[in-house]
# Entry
Amino acid sequence: MINQTLMQMMALGVVLVAAIAFAIYGMRYRNQSPPTRSVPVFPSLADEVGRVAEEGAAIHVALGNGSLIGEDAMTSVAALQGLSALIDLSAVYDTPPLITTSDPTLYLLAGDWMRRAYTRLGSADLYKSAAVQFTATSPITYAAMAATYVSDSGIGSNIVLGAFTQEATLLTTAAEKRSIHSSGGTTLPQGLGALYPALDQEQLVMGEDMFAGSAAVSQSSAGSASLWAQNVLRWLVIAGILGGALISLAGIGGA
Amino acid sequence: MFKRFLPTIMAMLAGILVLLGYLLPLDFLVTLRDVVLLRWAMILAAFALIVAFLNLLFVHLLRLTSARKKKFTSLLVVLSALGTLILVLVQGAEGTWTQQVLNTVLIPGESALLALTAVTLIVAGMRILRARRTAGAVVFVIAAGIILLTTVAYSVYPNVFAVLREGVNTLATAGMRGLVMGVALGVTLTGLRVLLGIDRPHSDE
# Structure
């Protein structure tokens, strides 16, 4: 019980430190976007819209299976934020990507993002609901079904971004068979193991870089401030690990 | 006005209450989280599933009526989706025929796909050195090779390869923990932005 309370207090401490660091960086860089680490994939995603539109094809975006009421919720939200420029540009040119997902809640959110992109332009009537598709609840069946879409001649680019495990390899293999350009990333180790051999390093989003998408695409000070706060937390965690190891070596605090 | 602020306020309030329910050892917050908010979330998710199922049918019926080729997959999807729906409505999720479909079609099918995943992963791993001759690719192939070899060798000679396997496991666990920790920090900050109403994925900017 004491251990659980201690863990809760530590987690609360991490959240509070994160909030304070975020607030400090947010105020400091209120009117300017500070330089942050660059993740080349995100800015290049929107370029795909023009390239694929010239070919008369469409982009396939696989958002994975990160449910909005599960532990991968923020991964899915970050993936959508990283794709926001692509979604907006697609609405401008009226060349909507084919977005697939295996989670019903994520399907609703992705559909809403697409619809809002059209609404902001004043052309909500042009939005087609079939642009966002729910394919299956099981991740492996979803990937197999989405891979059949990638195999279609109408797809000219493949983006695999969100919560994926090893099933991502079915999507990249389908794209490779048709010599289609693939990019994307995930936060899960099993998914990264599948994506790493299939994607060029410049086209791969690994782990925490997924959360840099918002800052990279929108250039907003809030996005950059959150990355700086993330850096602060990272160093605090490293210091905590080293401190814990030293305390353990010194034999303080029991077994 | 309401369309813009109401979803944001509701999301912030619900998010903060659920977060506090996990972080503060107070019974009423835990009850609020488990009995009220998470139950509402489950009901909403169930409705989302119905909408998503209808989308699945709509998309594939649209494909069937369009002039495109390769309609067979769509026909199969529509028939199996409707068939399963009728079966579950008539017999329930635990019914004999429903379980039969699950055990003889769905589970073997998914197992086959998982086996296919293993093959495509091996092929991708073999192709990496031909397509990409970078230091990262070399390290990846060597690491994958060592892990595979130690796993196989350990099952045959457990005494000889115990130490090597322990070393490999320690390195792999350390790498995974580093990755997961970075992701956890990213999740925390992204969640905070949503909770503070700075990012509003659910409503208009």
Chain A has ten helices and six strands. Chain A touches chain B through 73 residues (CB under 8 Å). The radius of gyration of chain A is 20 Å. Chain A has a mean pLDDT of 88.
